[in-house]
Amino acid sequence: MLEGIDPIILIIIITNVLFSIKGFDDYVFLDKYKFQVGRVLGNEKLRMLTSGFLHVDWMHLGFNMYALYMFGGFVSTILGPISFLIIYFGSLLAGSFYTLHYHKNEPYYSAVGASGAVSGIVYSSILLYPGMELFLFFIPIPIPGYIFGVGYLLYSIYGMKKQLGNIGHAAHLGGAIGGFVLTLILNPILFTTNTIFVIMLAVPIILLLLFGDKLKSL
Question: What are the extents of the domains in the chain?
């Protein structure tokens, strides 16, 4: 399965696996490096980065690493390894910043996972190739990438409002925004070549940035 995988992506996957396994059995380790609003607002800003290499269980870890494996190579091949790293870590931090902003009045809110970074990579892939066809487990027909991208954002906004499941929807949103913005900065020709799709993917992001703070009061 890993034959031909980009070495940088492989290193990131291995790092996630090793740190996550350590956290599975060592709660002190997990607690020290997880994202927690109160501690991040204190003097522990490094948690915004380290939390992205921890996961709560094998399913959580496996899903994120599989998505990274599926979409990461595409971004790295098209934009190059340096741009891939910028998008990956930039999206990770964007997810943490958005989570911090949205949950700023909840000091005990905590989260772990590479979801923000992976969401950024997925969204970057869709932006680079909006016509890609994605197959989801519960839908027997392929879905165009741009449709999935818009639907993903709308679902995450709904999930953030309703607090659905034990999922960091805010990190997903922040990461997707980070991946979208950084991909356009690193490859601005997309404004010309994929104009319609850039606009389609930008609309829910703009609405979120303008009205996101009002979600909790609805």
Answer: 7-217
Query: What are the tens digits of pLDDT across the range 60-72?
Result: 898 889 889 888 9
Spatial contact of 53 and 16, defined as CB atoms under 8 Å apart: yes
Sign of CA dihedral 66, 72, 74, 77: negative
pLDDT of residue 1: 46
Q: What is the model's pTM?
A: 0.88
pLDDT, tens only, 110-138: 889 898 999 899 889 888 987 777 766 56
What is the pLDDT, as a whole number, of residue 102?
85
For the chain, what is the HEC assignment?
CCCCCCHHHHHHHHHHHHHHHHHHHCHHHHHHHCEEHHHHHCCCCCHHHHHHHCCCCHHHHHHHHHHHHHHHHHHHHHHCHHHHHHHHHHHHHHHHHHHHHHCCCCCCCEECCCHHHHHHHHHHHHHHCCCCEEEECCEEEEEEHHHHHHHHHHHHHHHHHHCCCCCCHHHHHHHHHHHHHHHHHHCCCHHHHCHHHHHHHHHHHHHHHHHHHHHHHC
- Greater pLDDT, 142 or 118: 118
User: CATH 1.20.1540.10: does it fit domain 7-217?
Assistant: yes
